[in-house]
Amino acid sequence: MTDLADRFARDIEASADRPLVVGLTGPQGSGKSTLADALPTRLSAAGLRSAVLALDDLYLPKADRQRLAADVHPLFVTRGVPGTHDVALGREVLANLTTVRQTRVPSFDKGSDDRRPIAEWPTVEGPVDVVIFEGWCVGARPQTADALIWPINDLERDRDPDGVWRAYANAALAGPYQALFGDIGLQALLLAPGFEAVLGWRLQQEHEMRARRGAVGQSDAEIAVFIQHYERLTRHIAAEMPSRADVVVRLGPEREVVGFENA
């Protein structure tokens, strides 16, 4: 990702508008978080102050998702799809990062599946010139109603047969999330060669985490089910976003860069 970070940083530097919110989108395991974390150092060398906001850190607290699961659909207890993020908090943080001197950036603990206390959130000294807003569905647009009719995998067929879960998530994406994404000035997409590669990348991540932390984690079978929560929108983004993204990075099966396209 080093060469990619250098090239991507040059595109950001060339963008005239400041402050600039960069949407960095890519499926699970594609390397978007690694790329996002590498960019501030490179942008600093160009005299640009930057900060990273991860969509994952905007997850609703566990108690809120449990209420959503009870009131709307049980699948919403699992974080990830539109509807499980604190959109209002995200908009506030994006605005503050580019206008005020100090901003606390949310932090989510995936180990406990809950938001960390505010006192533990990192503080960014601002205002910054560039915000790297990274996440698996950052900048995504909703599907049509017709596209939601048929389930696309076993999870949807068995656990969302009436389409309540996917319709609610799509409505959230069509409404509040478009406001959250409305300030994106440069949209970049890491494009996988196919959804099958995404599953392999996610399994690799899990295996590396187990080896590094000595944790049991999820089994391969559990990961295969878990990633089905993201399949519908991941496939939709791969089909819909490339034609409008400012930067498209095409990845090979080993996450190698096989193409780099500018709008």
- Strand percent estimate: 15-25%
> Biggest sheet, strands in spatial order?
2-7-1-8-9-10
State the separation between the terminal residues, measured CA to CA: 21 Å
Shape: globular
Low-confidence stretches: none
Architecture overview:
- The longest helix has 19 residues, at 195-213.
- The model has no long low-confidence stretch (mean pLDDT 94).
- The chain has helices at 2-14, 32-45, 62-71, 87-97, 154-159, 164-174, 176-181, 195-213, 220-226, 228-240, and strands at residues 20-25, 50-54, 102-104, 108-109, 114-115, 123-125, 130-135, 184-191, 247-251, 257-262.
- It contains ten helices and ten strands.
- It has 263 residues and is α/β, with parallel strands linked by helices.
- The two termini are 21 Å apart.
- The protein has a six-stranded mixed beta sheet with strand order 2-7-1-8-9-10, with helices on both faces. A two-stranded antiparallel sheet has the order 3-6. Strands 4-5 form a two-stranded antiparallel ribbon.
- Helix 1 packs across helix 2.
- 42% of the residues lie in helices and 17% in strands.
Outline the fold blueprint.
Elements: H1 2-14, E1 20-25, H2 32-45, E2 50-54, H3 62-71, H4 87-97, E3 102-104, E4 108-109, E5 114-115, E6 123-125, E7 130-135, H5 154-159, H6 164-174, H7 176-181, E8 184-191, H8 195-213, H9 220-226, H10 228-240, E9 247-251, E10 257-262
Parallel strand pairs: 1-7, 1-8, 2-7, 8-9
Antiparallel strand pairs: 3-6, 4-5, 9-10
